[in-house]
Amino acid sequence: MIWKKVLCPIIGLAALCCIGMVSRLGWESKFVEIKENGNLIYHADEKGNVIPDFSKVGYHHGNKEIPDVETVIRLSPGKLEDHTDLIQKAIDQLSEKAPDLNGHRGAILMEKGTYMVHGELEIKAGGIVLRGEGDGENGTTIVAAGEGRRTLLNIHGSGMPKEESGKRATIKDSYVPVGTYDMEVNTTSGMEVGDEVILFRPGTNQWIRDIQMDRIIERKGTRQWKASEYDLRFERAITRIEGNRVWLDNPVMMAIDEKYGGGAIYPFSFEGRIAEVGVENIRFESEFADETDEDHGWIAIEMDKVENCWVKEVTAKYFGYACVSLGSFSKQVTVIDSKSLEPKSIITGSRRYSFNNDGQQNLFMNLYTTEGRHDFVTGAKTLGPNVFTNCVAKNTHADIGPHHRWSVGTLYDRIATDGEINVQDRGNWGSGHGWAGVTQVIWNCSAKAAAVQSPWASGKNYCIGLKGEKVKGRFSDKPDGEWEGLNQPGLAPESLYLTQLYSRLKLNNN
C-alpha cells in the first residue's frame, strides 16, 4: 500500500500507528479536529476559509518513495589535487545517456574520500543522481576549494513557463476561500483533466492600498510595493471537470476575491524544466580564511527550474549562505535528513539562510542547523503549499519564517529554535520588506519568542501550540494573528503535516 511505503521510512511504523489516535490527555485546535481514525475536520471562518491541507508537497506530492537509482558510474578520489573535471565529466557523460521509463539515467557513486573542487559543478539534465558513501567525516566529502563566492553544485533546467494561447478562463466565483479545491470558470474549453495550469491572482492597486504597502515609512533604498509586481502564479493541475467547475490538485492558499481583481486559470508548458535529480549521502565543505570570510563557497546545493527532485542525507559546513537553496521555479522537491553547520561570513543581511525556499510545493523535513540567521525561510512571493517540518536550529542569529514581500501558504510544523519565529510586517527593513506573508501556519513549534500577525486584508496567519514568549514584533499596532494554546502542552495532532499526509494517503487514497 502506497501510504505505508511513503510514510514508514519517514516516521517509523510505531509512530505511524499513533497518528490515527487522538490523545485524550491533550487538546485540539478549534481550527482542526482529528477523528479517532486519523481523519481531519477543518472548521471554517465566517468567509469559509480554513487551514489548508499541506500534504501534497515534495517529491511527487508525497505519493512516491524517493527511488534507489542504479549506480552506473563510480568515481574514486585518487591522488588528484583538483577533482572538478573528474566529477563534471562523469555528469556530462551520464547526461548523454537516454533516460529509462521513470526518467532516470542513473547514479554516479562517489566513493569515500575527499574531492577538491576549485570551480563549480553543474547538472543540467534530468534523471541524474549524485551519491556518496556517507555525509560524516569519514564518508564522501566535496570541498569548495580556494577563493571565490559561488554555488558548489548547481542543478538547473532552462526556459520559462509559457501560457498556452487562447485557453485562459476567468474565475466566476466572487470569493474562493483558502482551502478550496474547486471553482467555477467562464469556460473549460481547451482544458482537460491532468493539464498543468496556473491559478492566477492579479496584483491590484486597491489590494496594495488595503494592506498599506504603498505607505512604508521610507529610508534610503525603500521601495513602495507596486501592483504590477504582485501578480501571483500558483502551479496546479486539473483533477476533475464538471461543466464549468474545475477541481485542482492542491488547495487555494490565498483567497481569490473579486474585490481585488478575481482570478483566472490557464494551461501552461515549461520546456526545459528537468526532473528526477537527486543528491544523496554527501558531505559538502567550504574552505575559508577566517570567521568572517566572504570570498568562498556560498551555497552547497542550488536548484531551479526543476521538479520532482530530492536532497537527502547531506551535510554542508562553512558555506556563507545555504546548504540548500531552491529557486522560484523549483517544484515538488524533498529536502530531508540534512544539516547546515557553522557557516562562515559576517553576520548581516543576505547571509546564512541555511535552508532557503523560493519555490512551490516543496518539503523540508528532519533538518538541523547551527549558527544560521534565517534557518528555515522563504523569500518574496514564495507560493505554497510549502512545508518545513521536524527541524531544529541551534545558536541562531535571527528568525525563522517568511522573510519578506508576501510569501503565501507555508506550514512550520514542529520547529524548535533558540531564536525567534516571526510572521509580521517588516516595514522598511531591507528595501521595504513589508508584510512577510499570509496563510502561514506555525504548528506545535518551540522558540525563544514569536510575533505572528495577520495583514489587514487577504487572509490570516496562525500560531497554534507555540512554546515560547509571545512578543509584539517590529510594530505593535499590526493586527494579531490567530493565536491558540500558547505554552499549553499536548496539542493533537502533534504533527499537522504527517497527520494530513496519513489522512490523505491511507484514508482517502488520493
Question: Can you put this structure into words, describing what you see?
Answer:
- With 510 residues, the protein is mainly beta.
- The chain has a 15-stranded parallel beta sheet that branches. A 10-stranded parallel beta sheet has the order 7-10-22-24-26-28-30-32-34-36. Strands 11, 12, 14, 15, 16, 17 and 19 form a 7-stranded antiparallel beta sheet that branches.
- Helices cover 9% and strands 39% of the residues.
Query: Residue share in helices?
Result: under 10%
Please compute the radius of gyration using only Cα atoms: 22 Å
Instruction: Quote the beta fraction.
Output: 35-45%
Number of helices: 5
Question: What average pLDDT do the residues reach?
Answer: 95
Q: Would you identify the regions where 5 or more consecutive residues have pLDDT less than 50?
A: 20-24
Count all strands and give the number.
38
Distance linking N and C termini: 12 Å
SS class: mainly beta
**Overall 3D form:** globular
> Major sheet, described briefly?
15 strands, parallel
Q: What would you say about this model in short?
A:
The chain has 510 residues and is mainly beta.
Please render the helix and strand layout as text.
Elements: H1 2-11, H2 13-19, E1 27-28, E2 32-34, E3 40-42, E4 71-75, H3 84-95, E5 106-110, E6 113-117, E7 121-123, E8 128-131, E9 140-144, E10 150-156, E11 162-163, E12 169-170, E13 175-176, E14 182-184, E15 196-201, H4 205-210, E16 232-242, E17 245-248, E18 256-257, E19 264-269, E20 274-275, E21 278-286, E22 297-304, E23 306-317, E24 322-326, E25 330-341, E26 355-357, E27 363-370, E28 376-378, E29 383-394, E30 399-402, E31 407-417, E32 420-423, E33 437-443, E34 446-452, E35 462-464, E36 467-470, E37 482-484, E38 491-492, H5 496-508
Parallel strand pairs: 1-38, 4-5, 5-8, 6-9, 7-10, 8-21, 9-21, 10-22, 20-23, 21-23, 22-24, 23-25, 24-26, 25-27, 26-28, 27-29, 28-30, 29-31, 30-32, 31-33, 32-34, 33-35, 34-36, 35-37
Antiparallel strand pairs: 2-3, 11-19, 12-19, 13-18, 14-17, 15-16, 15-19, 16-17
Helix pairs in contact: 1-2, 1-5
